Amino acid sequence: MSEFTIERVKTGIPGLDELIEGGFPKGDTILVAGKAGTGKSILATQFLYNGAVTYDEAGVLVTLEEAPKMIRRNMLRFGMDLKKLEEEGKLAVVDLSPSKEATPVTIGEYPSFDLSGLEAIIMNHVKKLGAKRIVLDTLSIMAYKFKSRDILREEFFKLAAHLTDEGRTLVLTSEIPEQHDGLGVFDIEAFLASGVIVLYNEKISETSRSRSIEVLKLRGSQHSSRIHSMRITEDGIRVFPGEIGSG
Amino acid sequence: MAEKAESDEAPEDGVEDSDTMEIVLFKSDTCAFCPRAEEVVRETIETFEPGTFKLRVINVSETPEAAEEYGVFALPTVMIGNLSITGIPEPEMLMKMILGVRVTTNEV
Predict the structure, then answer these.
(1) Which residues in B have their CB inside 8 Å of a CB on A?
(2) Which residues from chain A sit within 8 angstroms of residue B87, using beta carbons?
(3) Domains of chain A with CATH codes
(4) Hey, which CATH number is domain B19-97, 3.40.50.10490, 3.40.30.10, 3.40.50.720, 3.30.70.1170?
(5) ipTM of model
(6) Distance between CA atoms of B49 and B3, rounded to whole angstroms?
(7) Nearest CA among B76, B8, B2, B63 for reference residue A108
(8) Chain segment A48-90, per-residue pLDDT in tens
């Protein structure tokens, strides 16, 4: 393979790889943004699950919001048995959710901190598993956990650079607040990632909504510039490259 | 001078004396703010009677499991009881935390 060829990491999500020249560019940071309930966590988890089951690439799922117990239960509905993968050493679920009982109550914050602890925690699992895929779900929760957004912005760049070292592919999810035009609460999400995928679940009538997916940018890729239909089936997310969605 | 101990063990393992309050400092090898935070903590506890505190320093670079257990990933973080503060703490804030935990503990 030439040094100018971009190696691809297949998502294994039906229909998605067709839109992005075969997969995410290896070693890139990909942002999956969308409003609540658009399927961000499902897409990100499928990326890890398929990596472990189909492509022999172990993964690390860092949950900053939902408790692992709920994630395992919810993903089982889509045929993804995360517990089994964890037992097989193909997946690590890192629980940094607020639901942890041992987590102390933060009563103050000074603008003199970094996220080196987060990097150390994640890298510990990455090394143990030899993981090639990392998901951080969701970046947005950090805006509620910490006040110093300038520090967070800077730290996100460092974190993404270090985690994607040695060809690891990082997927970050970002929740777009209602009535918000950007891609997340920090307004730097698009700069943080070399690839941006946006999920929609728009109301198309009084009684129905339509799901769709848009590849907003992807480094070095001739990706589709259209918004495509997407469905959440019993097997997880399925993209329909031939169908144009409503966005 | 207050008692000082440095260990990477989980804090509960080291509680020996119920009158001794435990202060946990989470730091890392790469954290630029951590040395100053450690100084502030040590200077603050030195103003108390010896044996009042037990300081545990958890280096997250060496024992990330300990930080993960407590869900602490922004550094430096000082934890006293179930309260924590992130960044280089002001001594006044540490004193408030100490008093807050002491009041809570005495109420139980």
Answers:
(1) 26, 28-33, 36-37, 60-61, 64-65, 67-77, 79, 81-90, 93, 97, 100
(2) 108-113, 148
(3) 8-100+110-244 (3.40.50.300)
(4) 3.40.30.10
(5) 0.89
(6) 9
(7) B76
(8) 999 999 999 999 999 999 999 999 999 999 999 999 999 999 9
